[in-house]
Each structure stands twice: as C-alpha cells, then as structure tokens.
Fold each of these.
Amino acid sequence: MTTLRIGIATYEEMKARTLAIARGAYKPKKDEPKVWFTSMESVARVLSDKNRALLNLIATEQPASLTELAKLSGRAKPNLSRTLKTMAGYGLVQLNKGASGRVAPIVPYSEIVLDLPVISGKAY
C-alpha cells in the first residue's frame, strides 16, 4: 500500500520550512507530509466526496484517457480537466501523456493520510 501523507500549515510556516530545508538547517523526516495545504477548507475542496470518488474511479478503472474518464464518471471533460490539474498540482494524481496526445490519469497512492496539528507555529 502506498500512502501519501498530507499536512496543513500556514503559508508562512511552509515558507519557513522550505527555506530551512534549502539552507540545510532542517532535514524533513521520512514520515512527514509530502504535500501541504494552507487550510482545512482547501483540503475539503480538493478532497471533496465527489473528488475522492473520482480518485477511486481512476484507481479501479484505470482509464486510458480523459475522454474515457469523462464517460465513466459522467462529468464534463472541461470540468474534469480542471479538477485533475488541481489534483495533479498537489500530487494526488499524475497526468501521463501518451500516444496521439492522450492524457491518462493515474492515482499513485492507495491511501491519503492527513496530519492535522493541534498546535501550529513550529519553528524551523
């Protein structure tokens, strides 16, 4: 089972973390989130029930193109394309270009785990 660990941090916290890593002052631990969101609301938008159902559909049916996925999901291709680009930006899906310009969506994880801090503001 491949797991994607996601976390929530403010923009300032993510920036401080990134700069600390770049300076060599901080080395991320193996079990830390690889993908970061700025709020619970942004997590909820990207991983809505409808979008999680889409991830499941992609993982189980393995469509060879966005056109095939649109048919399977009943979603309009332009809206589907926007949703997948957003998810790809967070690393939740991969959009692999294949023969004749087809784009095949792939879900590289079988599980997503959310690290939700109770206390924020970790200094890096």
Note: The helical segments are 11-23, 40-46, 49-61, 66-73, 77-89.
Amino acid sequence: MSDEALIAGYLSGDTSALAVLWTRYDGLVYGIARSVTRRHEVAEDIRQEVFITLMGAIDALECHAKFAAWLRTVTYNACRSWLRGHHPSVGLGDLDERHIPSTDPAAEAIENAETHTALRRAVDRLDLDYREVVELYYYEGYPVADVAEMLDMTETTVKWRLHKARESLRRLQTLYM
C-alpha cells in the first residue's frame, strides 16, 4: 500500500494505517536520530517525539506523495532542537593512525575498512549543518535537489555545505593521516 493511500486511510479514521506508516519509517527515523546525536537513548526519545509530531501534524501535509521527505525534515528538526540544548564534545583521537600501503590483498581489504571507518568518524565530527548534507548526499544517495527540499534550503546552500564539508575532511586528513 502506498504512503498516499495509508495517509488517506488514517485521515479517514483508520488508525491502523498510521501504524503501518510508522513501521515502514521507524528505522529511518531512528537511524537519522542516532546518526545525528550519536546516542541510543536520545535517538529513542527523538523517535517518540517524531511519532507524536506525525500524529498531530500529518493532516497539515499538503502533498502526501512527499511524506518520506517531510518525515526526514521533521526528524532533522527534532535532532537540531536537541542539539541546541546539548553540545557534545568529540575528540579526534581515533583518526591519528597512519595507514601503511601493502600489496597483500587481505591487508589491503583491512586498510580499506580502516580508511572507511576513519572517514565515517571524521564525517561524524562535522558540524550538523555539514554532516546532514553529507549523510543525505553521499551515504543515502539523494541528489542535491532532494537534499535541498528535505532540509528546506536552496540547492546552492546544499552545494556550499558539501564543499565546506569536503574542505573540513581534507584538513582532518592532512592533520591526522
């Protein structure tokens, strides 16, 4: 059943339709919240907050076909609200290992995994404004136009934030690799 049909069903009084929608997107909401906050218990709280928002605001959603993008936006906004009250401190100690080139395929695979892990940790340390566009563009594969719509900003802003994020990651690489 499509999101549109489920929303129409819920708005017509079928509460089970909302449960189906929530089950469909629960992992996405939790994943975004966990990625932004880096804390399981906070991600759980944000998940509940988003569900409550969903129940109270779904009737205001004008284009039911854009439900997933709207839900992402609601989730990122809830994460931003949480971050405004909390300033997590993160060290860069995990990025100081040097990688030694190898011709051994097994060692190369390990090195690639370590590089991926180090890059993921570096992305996690970016400011939220940069991290969220990197996550949506590079990790989730959304085009710039979709990222701009989800985050309610212009495409130019998304491109600028991707540019600044890449600069920050290059600086971290220079400092710690």
Note: Residues 87-104 have pLDDT under 50 and may be disordered.
Amino acid sequence: MRKVDHVGIAVADLDEARRTWDALLGQTPVVEDVPTQKVRTATYPCGIELVAPQSPESPISRFLAKRGPGIHHVTLAVDDIAGELARLKSQGVKLVNEAPVKGAGGLPVAFLQPVGGVLVELKEKRR
C-alpha cells in the first residue's frame, strides 16, 4: 500500500453536489462514467471523489437508500493489485472483488469488505 489515493463520497445528484464542492475546493474535477459500477464520478485533484448512481442497481443507490449521502469509501493506491488481493486473501481479509475490475480512469480497482466499518478500495497505480 503506497498512500491514500482518494476518499469517495456518495451523492444522489452529481451536478447539485458539484456546485458546493467546486466552490469549496476551488477546483474543477474530472467527470466520467464508470459502467462497471453503474456510477458517474467527479474526481478532484485534491483527492475527493463524488460518486453518484446511474442506475437503481448501482451499489451507490443501495448505499444512499440505506445510509444517505456521505463518505462511501477510502481508496488506497497499490503497485500490484493482483498481488495485493492474493496477499490479503491469504491473510483472511474478505474481498468483495476476487479479481480487479475497471474503475475510474480505466485503472484496475477492487473492493474489500468493510474494515472497521469503512469500505476500502484498492486502485492500481504504477509509479
């Protein structure tokens, strides 16, 4: 694990949430669709990612229905996601994704079951 890459915040309406976050951060995010998760994201250079559902079947839709808007996950940057998943599984860490999927920016990602109540995402970012 290299560093915290970003904190994901679940929002119901990306455009509405952006009005506040754009002003607060004074930054313009990269906005993209992530079909594998059925979401649209706005990722700010400072490490905040807003995540809005694009479908009722999206994990974010379920999260919002259960908990409302707020912090959804913490993402850790790793050099070798497959290696980290194997290492974590061998240590008994429960995985949501047994293998990486394509995440924002087309980079490989995988989620772990919540650790201490926090959903953790691994994101492969080679140096």
Note: The first strand starts at residue 3 and ends at 10.
